[in-house]
Write a structure and sequence with these properties.
The protein has 3 domains: about 10-125, Probable tRNA modification gtpase trme, domain 1 (Gyrase A, domain 2, 2-Layer Sandwich), CATH 3.30.1360; about 140-210 and about 375-420, Up-down Bundle (Four Helix Bundle (Hemerythrin (Met), subunit A)), CATH 1.20.120.430; about 220-370, Rossmann fold (3-Layer(aba) Sandwich). The chain has helices at about 30-40, 90-100, 115-120, 125-135, 140-150, 155-180, 185-210, 210-220, 235-240, 285-300, 355-370, 380-400, 405-420, 430-435; strands at about 10-15, 20-30, 50-55, 60-70, 80-90, 105-110, 220-225, 260-265, 270-275, 300-310, 325-330, 345. It is an alpha/beta fold and about 450 residues long. It has 14 helices and 12 strands. α6 runs antiparallel to α13 (about 405-420) and α12 (about 380-400) packs antiparallel against α13 (about 405-420). It starts with 8 loop residues before the first strand and ends in a 6-residue tail after the last helix. It binds guanosine-5'-triphosphate (GTP) and magnesium ion. Magnesium ion binds near residues 254 and 255.
Amino acid sequence: MHRGVSRDTIVALSSGQLPSGIAVVRLSGPRVQEVIAVFAGSLPAPRVARFGVLRLADGSPLDEGLTLFFPAPRSFTGEDCAEFHIHGGRAVVEALLRAICKIEGCRLALAGEFSRRAFENGKMDLLSAEATADIVTAETEAQRRFAAQNSGGGHAALYADWRSRLIHARAFIEAELDFSDEADVPGSVSQQVWAEVASLREEVEAHISGYSKAEILRDGFDVVLLGAPNAGKSSLLNALARREAAIVTPEPGTTRDLIEILLDIDGLKVRVTDTAGIRPTEGLVERLGIERALDRAREAGLVLVLEDLTAPLPIDGGVAKQQLLIGTKADLLDGRPVSSRYDHTISCVSGEGLQELLNTISGKAQSAAPRTGELIPWRLRHVELLAQCGRHLTAALNNTDAGLELRSEELRLASNALGRIGGAVDVEDLLNVIFGQFCIGK
Ligand SMILES: Nc1nc2c(ncn2[C@@H]2O[C@H](COP(=O)(O)OP(=O)(O)OP(=O)(O)O)[C@@H](O)[C@H]2O)c(=O)[nH]1
Ligand SMILES: [Mg+2]
């Protein structure tokens, strides 16, 4: 896929923020060997780190460090690549980058430019390029595991399989077109082809519906605290956050707006939202707060309805996907029995029941997230192309009056949409968008 244009040699700081113990300056392009010769003297053996003094063009020493050379095509980008591992001081890195950019044909890399070259040289498909970007930005253990799994090529294999089934279906239809005069392609064959397309459409749709799990992994499993004023919602939020995230007072109606905290529970991102206490009210601000609370609860993965065990005030929380009833202020019960209506009883004063509640939240979050090894589309870009594929399959299936040529063309378009996910079909227009989101040096 290399377009054969003469290319700049690109350079970037590929390690993190400066200052740091070590900084990795990475290069890719036709001038890499020349750059190594200038700064490190002779070329080191391929893929073997060599320690030595790095010198600027005028011979003055810059730093001591490692030099690595990855000759094309066995490199990340498929071009000649190099890495200098030097001390991570701002001035040191700055001096090296500046000196490299003075060499003709060398310049600083744009965001994602290394990965883009790797894609263009057939080193990775778009799916694994995106998964690599996700590994870099993963914040939780579950996100990291998911990104690592996505880079493994499972999606590419699935979409390739779907495309080959479509090619197969079209081959049968073309055959039917070619031999239709002779009527020797039995009608039942064509029936089978359409049955196969229909089942493929179901698979595509089931796959699309998995996207919500990817959203949970990325944006967090949504838990909303709901209850009458003074039920102890803000106290629970603070207990979960282990800090005073929300104001707590004995006055009912303290919280007016949504207050969110992010937790990492057993490696999963969980977003807990505290809300205004639900009650009939004349106050405009409070009423708007209550509306927000109910709206949020409708979209939540889990709603915890809190009730003060010493003064239970049931609320009408509307319909949530999953709801648990939590009795609060258990420390005030003085041994009085608790109604079995409650899924959990807790006290933010004594801490009782909090760990059990956390375990329940963790369990619900885990079951809403993708299972290990489960293949789901994890970006909106994929979902849009899958939906496009589904629409073309539907058109092919439903337009029974349209003639086989047109219906076969719909199958071709469906297959193209799948091809665009991994980058097998023209995606030039997409590349700037996709790789532009990567960080510099990646
Ligand atoms: N003894 C005891 N008091 C609690 C407990 N949790 C909350 N409280 C008290 O109950 C009162 C109300 O607590 P909040 O957490 O502000 O209740 P809220 O549900 O956020 O109330 P609004 O924001 O007004 O809707 C405060 O005085 C808290 O100190 C608890 O577990 N035990
Ligand atoms: Mg509150």
